[in-house]
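Final report, closing paragraph on structural work. Over the funding period we assembled a curated collection of sequence-structure pairs, and we close with a single example.
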Amino acid sequence: MVLTLSGTYGQLLDYVVFGDWIFFGLCGVCLFVFRRREGEPEGVFRTPGYPLVPALFITPAMYVVVSSVISNPLNAAVGFGLIALGVPAYWHWKSQAEGP
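Its predicted structure, as stored:
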């Protein structure tokens, strides 16, 4: 709600697009990581066109992130800062789940 008071729709869109496409690209990277770590899974969903399709997805995701930084570095920095604000919350909830 605070973000809606902070600027224009274009700024909010830049913040969200920057953050979203980082995580969209990382989801594609995870396919490669899991496949390497787990090998060929049996009886689970297989990604059609693997490895070409995930690679073709990761490439434009990287392009969107890089072009966001180049076109408006300030908004990209704010978007990164908003993502970074979640790190302490993650650490807190992770420590609560592990217990003393």
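The helical segments are 2-6, 9-38, 52-71, 73-84, 86-98. The CA atoms of residues 33 and 92 lie 26 Å apart. We thank the funder for supporting this effort.
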